[in-house]
Design goal:
Helices cover 52% and strands 14% of the residues. By secondary structure, the protein is of the alpha/beta class.
């Protein structure tokens, strides 16, 4: 299944039995959205907004109700710009997240995306705690046709980032993509290390455009929301990269994150290939569901 097809299938089945926008319909819709990983609070708000729109505009026609639900979902997904900020040379992106979510893979795919947009990209292997992290990132650098800065296992992540920023300025690189250690979201040293990396960026590239992107596995459902909430508190997120939306994930977590945390989903992973990370499009997302 492709982009949001799982969620699309679930919701389409609901509308295939639609007769009228009565209380039974709203109750079934709310249950469907909860099962689609939207979470209780977000699903309840979506249904309440739709109920109010249906009442106010006196909607009963199936197509009119579907269009109204589409508008509600787009509104809930509006948590700021979904564009990646690469407005300076160099711009810097920090990728954070727990191990196993597809963080290193996502960096390689973002590199590819930026390269296709004409940017010169440098990868920074600042996850020096996991033995295979730098090797994996180097493979993705080759696939994307990008340069990489790395050091030995156990090296100071700040030193690797320092070298990468020096290299970026010397070589006229447009964007530096920095991998970081995939610590569990409740570890206290996460904030200290990210603060250190942030200071290095401020010192070496003052005024550089910055992104702090949390990579989340969409298949974790509501646990992903818990992770995102904690990382936002410690790291000041600018966006979310939602991976594995082509598998068993139902995709509704995107709405919950945008609505509850005010953090936009900027990229969505829809497959294993290097070109399978796409800019997130709220209109397309809502359209796919409806």
């Amino acid at each position: 299944m492709g982009f949001f097809d799982k969620l699309k299938k679930i919701t389409t089945n609901l509308f295939s039995t639609f007769t009228e926008a009565d209380e039974a319909f709203f109750e079934e819709l709310e249950e469907t959205l909860i099962l689609a990983d939207m979470g209780v609070e977000t699903a309840t708000e979506a249904v309440e907004r739709l109920r109010e729109t249906v009442r106010r505009e006196k909607l009963q026609d199936q197509e009119a109700v579907r269009a109204a639900l589409r508008r509600v979902l787009v509104e809930l997904l509006d948590a700021g710009t979904t564009e990646l900020n690469v407005s300076t040379t160099p711009s810097v992106m920090l990728f954070i997240g727990v191990n196993g979510v597809g963080k290193t893979t996502s960096i390689g795919k973002v590199a590819r995306l930026l390269k296709q947009g004409g940017k010169r990209v440098l990868l920074c292997a600042a996850d020096t705690f996991r033995a295979a992290a730098a090797d994996q990132l180097e493979i993705w650098a080759e696939r994307a046709g990008c340069e990489i800065v790395r050091q030995h296992e156990g090296a100071d992540p700040g030193a690797v980032l320092f070298d990468a920023l020096q290299a970026a300025r010397a070589r006229g690189v447009d964007v530096v993509l920095c991998d970081t250690a995939g610590r569990l979201h409740n570890k206290q040293n996460l904030m200290a290390e990210l603060a250190k990396l942030s200071k290095i960026i401020d010192r070496e590239c003052p005024g550089a455009a910055r992104e702090t992107l949390l990579v989340l596995d969409a298949t974790t459902g509501q646990n992903g929301l818990v992770q995102a909430r904690t990382f936002k508190e410690t790291a000041g997120l600018t966006g979310i990269v939602l991976t594995k939306l082509d598998g068993t994930a139902k995709g509704g977590i995107a709405v919950a994150i945008a609505r509850e945390l005010g953090v936009p989903v900027k990229l969505a992973g829809v497959g294993e290939g290097i070109d399978d990370l796409k800019p997130f499009d709220a209109e397309a997302y809502a359209e796919a569901i409806i």
